[in-house]
Write a structure and sequence with these properties.
Blueprint: E1 5-7, H1 10-17, E2 29-37, E3 40-41, E4 46-51, E5 58-63, E6 69-75, E7 80-85, E8 89-90, E9 95-97, E10 106-107, E11 109-110, H2 114-118, H3 123-127, H4 146-154, H5 174-177, H6 184-191, H7 198-224, E12 243-250, E13 259-261, E14 276-279, E15 286-291, E16 296-301, E17 336-340, E18 346-350, H8 368-372, E19 382-387, E20 392-396, E21 405-407, E22 415-417, E23 426-430, H9 432-438, H10 441-444, E24 445-452, E25 463-464, E26 475-478, E27 485-487, E28 494-498, E29 504-509, H11 514-517, E30 519-524, E31 532-537, E32 543-547, E33 551-555, E34 577-581, E35 602-605, E36 616-621, E37 626-631, E38 634-639, E39 652-655, E40 665-670, E41 687-694
Parallel strand pairs: 2-10, 25-26
Antiparallel strand pairs: 1-20, 2-3, 2-6, 4-5, 4-7, 5-12, 7-9, 8-11, 12-41, 13-14, 14-15, 15-16, 17-18, 18-19, 19-20, 21-22, 22-23, 23-24, 24-26, 27-28, 28-29, 29-30, 31-32, 32-33, 33-34, 35-36, 36-37, 37-38, 39-40, 40-41
Helix pairs in contact: 6-7
């Protein structure tokens, strides 16, 4: 028996086992009608139907067609509030319908002024009002250029956690005004010391220095004086009107979510009609669970091996205008980035214990990876796996830090991990076959440094260290840490992103014995792109990445003129890069091409689950309450209009029933802002599970 297996309490096991064989409920009622305004039918506006009659709050959202017609399919039997939302409008009065109502015409309400209309604009339109120093002023402190400044705001510590233009961000709470005695700059300095994330906020703003506080203060001052977005969002058009959005509440208002999982990436038929699992990262050890068949949510505690593992409750904290003087985060596990395997088990990167790495990780150990590259420090996260059917957890202590994870296509079902920012400069993995056969966590894991083939001989040999000059007769180790990690279905190579400015991506060919044979290629992002975050590789081996420059970056390795040798150190393949500017306005002081949009990550729809075709890259539109799908070189923006402030960090696709057409498949995501209370519903808002489906037309049943 695995000594690190943890069995649920009876209550916890029953909670999960109850939903293992759940079947989809019978289809509900369609609701249809026409939306009209003073000038006739309203095209491209949303009809929202929401109920609290089910075990958890539920909503379904559709878009009107050219004639203002709508059809909300399959509403579960309940009473609903129904209303119209759209750009250029204010929300219509909510019509209350009883269970079984099938027809309802609605009246749209034009916004009485630009100010009222702008309250419904995505946050990026408000963020675009922020002034930034002109290029002529740089360097500013330690920041060398305007593009590095933008990277710092977008990916370096601000908008990677929440969107700056939301209602709660573009105004300053009275608490920081100190009764009107504090200037706006002083109020902003107080603001970044509030709440459980104060250390991260203070570090991010600290990089911008006094100039940063001045520009943030100017931004909120101008909005307070009446400044409005200089650009207007477009209503959905074309295939974007075919979108059906379904939402369920889960978790708690004081928690936040990182992401969720619904199926095995390699086979999206796994866990058909099953439960969806989330990760709450630093906010709580409760793992949220949604059963979309019963419209019910629950949670289970992620355990730790070491009871002395510290909690985020003890991290630096400042009084919050929303939550008061006490911390609201309380997590020991920091559980992160769940993935399902082919057996419907849920894998996490999670902290299971604290303290220095075990002896087998260090110098003097006989472990093959430790002999090649010992890890003396402490891993911030490890690995865990939940078997819902058995009601068991297995906790796996790794030497290498973990952050994101993805399964390989090999017979051993190897689980590859990234280490996140500031990791141990290694790529780590768990051989699942060895682990499941032996239960030996030390024997099953391995890691390797990132080594470039600067000798050009096609194999890994002796290498020089990161600080040493390139030796054409040797390879070269580079000190990078992967953030995203993705496995290529084309050739099994491991791809990932490297955070920073300008940042880059890596490709690792593991070889027969990765500890000693893995060879790395590193490609720096060239201008106009910069600042990578999450990325993914398609089935053709092309890598797609979200960039702080406001682009979806595309890297095609087949275009590279040089792949190895003494010049292959990062800047050797600008010809492999191309860039697609995200929809939305650019910041008004930025002349470089791009967008004010901030995108946390990109996921490639290998199998065409959504219905837009295979290999479509889908970037998170974190400033747009949306996903941006790149279809034949053009973006299709998939809006999630309610509640405003939804902040997806990733998506996951699942096929529940191949015979059911669009109804049997969909993409899943969750609101993942660390500041849900900055959004439409304030501190009373709830986290959302979001399902997106694409039907053949806006009226399809």
């Amino acid at each position: 028996m695995n000594p690190h297996r943890i069995v649920f309490t009876v209550a916890g096991a029953a909670l999960l086992l109850a939903g293992i064989s759940s079947e989809p409920r019978a289809q509900g009622t369609d609701l249809r009608g026409v939306v009209s305004g003073p000038n006739g039918p309203e095209a491209g506006v949303w009809v929202i139907a929401e109920t609290r009659d089910l075990p958890t709050r539920y909503a379904k959202i559709v878009v009107t067609d050219d004639l203002g017609r709508y059809l909300v399919p399959d509403l579960p039997r309940a009473s609903y509030d129904v209303w119209v939302r759209g750009y250029g409008l204010v929300d219509s009065p909510k019509a209350r319908i009883t269970a079984g109502t099938t027809s309802l015409d609605l009246t749209a309400v034009p916004a009485p002024s630009e100010k009222e209309a702008a309250q419904y604009y995505p946050s990026t339109y408000w963020f675009a009002l922020m002034r930034v120093p002109p290029e002529s002023e740089f360097p500013v402190g330690k920041i060398s250029s305007q593009t590095e400044w933008l990277h710092t705001i977008k990916q370096g510590g601000c908008q990677s956690c929440h969107a700056l233009g939301t209602a709660g961000m573009r105004t300053i709470p009275d608490m920081f005004r100190k009764g009107g005695e504090a200037t706006s700059m002083q109020a902003w300095k107080e603001r970044v010391t509030a709440g459980s994330a104060r250390a991260t906020m203070a570090r991010g703003m600290g990089a911008l220095g006094e100039t940063g506080f001045r520009y943030f203060a100017q931004w909120t001052d101008e909005i307070e004086k009446g400044a409005l977005p200089f650009a207007k969002p477009e209503r959905p058009k074309g295939v974007a009107r075919n979108l059906v959005v379904t939402t369920w509440d889960w978790s708690q208002p004081s928690h936040y979510l990182h992401d969720l999982v619904s199926s095995d990436r390699r086979n999206p038929k796994v866990n058909a009609n099953g439960r969806v699992y989330g990760s709450a990262e630093m906010s709580t050890d409760l793992v949220p669970i949604l059963d979309p068949n019963t419209h019910s949510s629950s949670s289970i505690v992620h355990p730790v091996r070491d009871p002395g593992t510290p909690s985020t409750k003890s991290d630096p904290f400042g009084p919050s205008p929303y939550w008061g003087p006490e911390p609201i985060w309380d997590s020991r596990t920091l559980n992160h980035n769940p993935m399902l395997d082919e057996k419907k088990r849920v894998w996490f990167t999670a902290r299971i214990a604290s303290g220095p790495n075990p002896e087998f990780c260090r110098s003097g150990s006989s472990h093959p990876s430790a002999k090649a590259f010992p890890l003396e420090g402490e891993a911030n996260r490890h690995l865990s796996v939940l078997d819902p059917k058995k009601g068991e957890w297995n906790l796996i202590r790794t030497c290498f830090p973990t952050h994101h994870l993805n399964f390989g296509f090999d017979d051993d079902n190897t689980l590859w991990t990234s280490s996140g920012a500031g990791g141990a400069n290694v790529l780590g993995w768990l051989n699942r076959y060895v682990y499941e056969r032996t239960g030996d966590e030390a024997k099953a894991q391995g890691w390797t440094p990132f080594v470039l083939d600067t000798s050009g001989d096609g194999k890994r040999g002796k290498y020089v260290e990161p600080g040493d000059p390139v030796d054409p007769k040797k390879d070269k180790r580079i000190a990078v840490s992967m953030y995203a990690v993705a496995l290529s279905p084309l050739d099994g190579t491991v791809w990932g992103t490297v955070l920073g400015y300008p940042g880059g991506i890596v490709r690792v060919a593991p070889g027969a014995n990765p500890t000693y044979t893995a060879l790395t290629e590193y490609y720096e992002v060239p201008l106009p792109g910069f600042g990578p975050r999450g990325g993914d590789v398609d089935t053709n081996g092309t890598f797609w990445v979200s960039l702080a420059s406001g682009h979806l970056g595309r890297f095609d390795r087949s275009k590279c003129k040089v792949l190895k040798g003494p010049t292959a150190t990062g800047r050797h393949c600008p010809e492999g890069w191309s860039f697609h500017a995200f929809p939305g306005p650019q910041l008004q002081d930025v002349k470089m091409a791009g967008s004010a949009e901030v995108s946390y990550s990109t996921w490639v729809d290998w199998q065409g689950i959504l219905g837009l075709g295979p290999n479509v890259p889908i970037a998170m539109g974190n400033g747009s309450d949306a996903l941006h799908a790149l279809v034949k070189g053009e973006f299709v923006t998939l809006h999630i209009p309610y509640p405003m402030g939804v902040f997806p960090k990733n998506v996951d696709g699942r096929i529940d029933d191949e015979r059911a057409g669009w109804k049997g498949r969909g993409l899943w995501t969750t609101s993942a802002t660390r500041a849900l209370f900055h959004g439409e519903n304030g501190k009373d808002g709830s986290q959302k599970v979001v399902k997106l489906q694409m039907r053949p037309n806006p009226l399809a049943h």
